[in-house]
């Protein structure tokens, strides 16, 4: 039996001021004390203020936890779970980029499980040996408040956690760990610096494009994804050039959410398999890693999804002509967008050394399973070739 399978978000509020709905929501859910997990930079920039003020107004106490690290690792998640257990909290609020939202998502799995459970034991890659995911009814209520327009983590079912010893990013979670509510507030994104705006925006674009050509068939999402690709093509350069442009920031917040919805059902592809080792081996920012690898992956994949790439090209306002010319135009449009938003084109310009390419290719193929839904088969040689082209 083949069925199209969809994972949609739970509740979403999207718009300026949305973060201020946190307090009344938690109060209505009968919550008394929120464990607020935030990026330290986000907290020091004052971006947690609207959410915390709304908690105070609603009479919901909070514990603020800011020991979030970029690319959260097992130790940082387990420490945050300890923090939750030591507090009086009965619910979780995550405020920040993907790292904070994923830390929060992973914490609620740990705290809903037995005391001795550690996040590494819940990894998908362990298969049957993984510790059983706690049922949704036991997970603390979770409100996700993104401060970047990129990962879509506010609506996705899984968290990505790094195992530093294995130099591996692994997934935890599942349909039961979709956040209960996403409060997507572009107001919190108006001060995001140009580099992070560009890199996180290119991550969102990669989600949309990889999902659109994925081998998972979810036709209900197609028009929505193409719309988001067009929106990113239009609004990302504006958001980078004019950080306070409210319309562009709102567009990007919406497109990133759609990217999250898209990958929840359709999953990703070879580009994310290649991007994850670039972070865990070489410390490349996730969105930048995708931005550099994406056009190479698109050209490689072309024979497997030519019509879909032609549609991506059209959404990005690319050249007309034959199906082949349009499909090839998609990668050219992505390169142009990357240039317009000021990101480098080569791995060597992102601090990656050539000696890492072979070990990263092995990790991308053997340890990162995102290529499962890639529209063209890959192997370790292909992975290394794609890194070399991008180097
Ligand atoms: Fe991503």
What would you note in describing this structure?
The protein is built from 14 helices and eight strands. The protein has helices at residues 22-28, 40-44, 49-57, 74-86, 98-112, 194-212, 222-241, 246-266, 270-282, 286-301, 306-315, 323-340, 357-366, 380-390, and strands at 11-14, 33-38, 61-65, 91-96, 141-146, 158-163, 168-173, 181-184. The strands form two sheets. A six-stranded parallel β-sheet has the order 1-8-5-4-2-3, with helices on both faces. A two-stranded antiparallel ribbon has the order 6-7. Helix 6 packs parallel to helix 10, helix 7 (222-241) packs across helix 11 and helix 11 (306-315) crosses helix 12 (323-340). The protein is globular and about 60 Å long. 57% of the residues are buried. The model has no long low-confidence stretch (mean pLDDT 96). The protein binds fe (ii) ion. Residues 151, 203, 207, 272, 286, 290 line the site of fe (ii) ion.
Please name the defining characteristics of this protein.
binds fe (ii) ion; Dehydroquinate synthase-like, alpha domain; six-stranded parallel beta sheet; 14 helices; alpha/beta; Rossmann fold; 391 residues
